[in-house]
Design brief:
Mean pLDDT: 85
Distance between the termini: 96 Å
Number of strands: 15
Order of helices and strands: HEEEEEEEEEEEEEEEH
Strand content: 35-45%
């Protein structure tokens, strides 16, 4: 191979990841192409974006706390050296590893992005098969099932969430042999409506009047 050919191949090797990164949509909390090349094990990493902060914790299917595996392709769950670090579910288990997201304030969780998520294949005259990967997102009394119901992105799969408001959310791998990583979180702070401020103001006025009467 000539020197010029070697230079071309080297350029492709260097530019390919950058090109892939350029096609990835931004998230409020971006994990894809933002982590280290090799696995970094953390117990409960805390991420910030402006005034928003989120703590991520990892657990195995039986509820035991594990470590968060942080890598260039996102966040996963790891229990040791031989664990690949994805969010996994077993062959004969309906539930698998899970991550909890705990925000520093109430948020609206608009969407979640995953890497290595595999949708079901589309077969002519039959349609789309069931997704190879499955998960649930739980918040409050609501559970949302994730399967083929995403944007079918080329690199990352994005799932929009309906009225997902709260401070704590749980993402759990389900189904048979699911394996994926959390690549991004889109969330916005919940701002109280004007009516809420008005009620708060009336409450403070009431407290003030009560205090005055007691003094009198």
């Amino acid at each position: 191979m000539s020197l010029s050919q070697k230079a071309k191949w080297l350029s492709l090797v260097v530019l390919a990841p950058l090109a892939a990164h350029a096609t990835v949509p931004n998230s409020t909390f971006q994990f894809y192409f933002e982590g280290p090349i090799f696995d970094e094990v953390v117990k409960a990493p805390y991420f910030t974006n402006g005034s928003l902060g989120v703590t991520v914790r990892a657990f195995t299917a039986d509820g035991k706390q594990a470590d968060v595996d942080r890598r260039w392709d996102g966040l996963g769950v790891t229990t040791g050296l031989l664990d690949p670090g994805e969010m996994n579910s077993g062959l004969f288990s309906s539930t698998g590893d899970y991550l909890t997201l705990t925000f520093n304030q109430q948020v609206k969780l608009d969407s979640l992005r995953f890497s290595w998520w595999e949708n079901g294949a589309v077969i002519p005259f039959i349609g789309q098969l069931d997704s190879l990967d499955h998960a649930t997102v739980k918040y409050g009394n609501t559970t949302v099932n994730l399967a083929n119901n995403n944007d079918n992105g080329l690199i990352l799969k994005t799932f929009s969430l309906p009225n997902a408001i709260g401070t704590t959310f749980t993402i759990q791998a389900t189904g048979n042999l699911s394996a994926f990583r959390l690549a991004g979180i889109n969330a916005t702070a919940v701002v109280p409506e004007p009516a809420t401020y008005a009620l708060m103001g009336l409450g403070l006025v009431g407290i003030g009047l009560t205090a005055r009467r007691r003094k009198a």
